C-alpha cells in the first residue's frame, strides 16, 4: 500500500519532468514568381509572432524533391506544452493567411518529430548551419528492425566522430525515421576521402561481413528512403 501511495505522489513529478524532445516542422514551397513576396511576409511574420519559446529556425532546402522550399523548425517542447499552447490567435492566423500562405504552392507540409537521444550522437539543440536529412520509411511491421539497424550505425558514426541526430515521426503520415547528419566542419565532411569508406568502418565496428548483412536487411526492411541538403537561413529565422 505504501508503495502504491508513493507511486501516486510521484506521478505529477513525472509529468513535470517531461524532457522537451518534440519538434514541429513546416515545409513551405513558394510559387516560382512569388519568392520575394513570400520571404518578406515570412520574415515579418516570424519577427512579430514567433519569438521566445516558439521561435523559428529556418533552413533553405537546397536539393531533393522540395528544393527551393523552406523548412521551419519549432521547438523542442514537450507534448504537454504543445497541448497547453492553445490557439495561436486570430491576429496571428490572419497575418499568416494574408502575408505568407498566398505566396506558396499546395506542396506545403507539416508534422511532428520526436528526438531519439539513444540513437543519436549529438544533443538535440546542438544545431549547425549545414545539414543533410535522410528520410527512412520502414516497411509495415519493420520499424523495430530499422531501429536496430540505426543502433548499429550509431557505432559507426561514433567511430568516425560524426554528429547525427535521429528523429522519429509522430502522428505525421507514414512511419518514418529522419536521420540528420549535422556537418560541424562544413560540407567537406561529405567528401569521400574525409573519412574511411563506410564498409570498412561498419565492419570494424560490428564485425567482419556485417556491412553486407546490413545492406541485405535494409533491402527487406525499408520501403524507400530519400535525402536532401539544407542550409540555415539566419535572416528568415526568429531573432
Number of domains: 2
Instruction: Quote the distance from N terminus to C terminus.
Output: 52 Å
Overall pLDDT level = 93
Structural class: alpha+beta
Strand tally: 8
CATH class of the largest domain: Alpha Beta
The run of helices and strands is: HEHEEHHEEHEEHHE
Shape: globular
**What is the CATH topology of the largest domain?**
Alpha-Beta Plaits
Description:
The chain has 239 residues and is α+β, with helices and mostly antiparallel strands. 36% of the residues lie in helices and 26% in strands. It has 2 domains: 19-113, Alpha-Beta Plaits, CATH 3.30.70; 116-229, Alpha-Beta Plaits (2-Layer Sandwich). The protein is built from 7 helices and 8 strands; from the N terminus they run αβαββααββαββααβ. It has an 8-stranded antiparallel β-barrel with strand order 1-3-2-8-5-7-6-4. A hairpin with a 6-residue loop joins strand 6 (163-170) and strand 7.
Give the SSE map.
Layout: H1 2-16, E1 22-28, H2 35-49, E2 56-61, E3 70-77, H3 79-85, H4 90-99, E4 109-115, E5 130-138, H5 143-159, E6 163-170, E7 177-182, H6 198-206, H7 210-221, E8 222-232
Antiparallel strand pairs: 1-3, 1-4, 2-3, 2-8, 4-6, 5-7, 5-8, 6-7
Helix pairs in contact: 2-4, 5-6, 5-7
Structure in a nutshell:
This protein has 239 residues and is α+β, with helices and mostly antiparallel strands.
What are its keywords?
239 residues, alpha+beta, Alpha-Beta Plaits, 2 domains, eight-stranded antiparallel β-barrel, 7 helices, 36% helix, disordered N terminus
Amino acid at each position: 500500500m505504501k508503495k502504491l501511495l508513493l507511486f501516486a505522489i510521484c506521478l505529477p513529478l513525472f509529468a513535470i519532468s517531461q524532457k522537451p524532445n518534440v519538434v514541429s516542422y513546416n515545409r513551405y514551397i513558394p510559387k516560382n514568381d512569388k519568392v520575394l513576396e513570400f520571404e518578406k511576409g515570412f520574415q515579418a511574420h516570424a519577427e512579430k509572432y514567433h519569438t521566445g519559446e516558439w521561435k523559428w529556425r529556418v533552413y533553405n532546402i537546397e536539393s531533393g524533391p522540395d528544393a527551393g522550399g523552406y523548412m521551419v523548425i519549432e521547438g523542442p517542447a514537450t507534448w504537454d506544452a504543445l497541448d497547453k499552447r492553445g490557439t495561436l490567435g486570430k491576429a496571428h492566423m490572419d497575418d499568416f493567411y494574408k502575408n505568407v500562405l498566398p505566396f506558396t504552392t499546395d506542396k506545403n507540409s507539416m508534422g511532428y518529430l520526436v528526438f531519439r537521444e539513444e540513437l543519436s550522437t549529438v544533443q538535440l539543440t546542438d544545431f549547425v548551419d549545414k545539414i543533410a536529412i535522410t528520410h527512412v520509411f520502414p516497411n509495415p511491421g519493420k520499424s523495430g528492425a530499422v531501429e536496430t539497424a540505426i543502433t548499429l550505425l550509431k557505432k559507426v558514426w561514433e567511430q568516425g566522430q560524426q554528429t547525427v541526430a535521429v528523429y522519429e515521426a509522430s502522428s505525421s503520415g507514414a512511419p518514418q525515421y529522419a536521420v540528420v547528419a549535422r556537418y560541424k566542419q562544413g560540407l567537406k565532411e561529405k567528401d569521400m576521402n574525409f573519412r574511411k569508406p563506410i564498409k570498412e568502418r561498419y565492419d570494424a565496428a560490428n564485425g567482419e561481413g556485417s556491412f553486407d548483412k546490413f545492406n541485405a536487411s535494409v533491402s527487406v526492411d525499408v520501403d524507400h528512403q530519400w535525402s536532401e541538403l539544407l542550409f540555415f537561413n539566419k535572416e528568415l529565422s526568429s531573432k
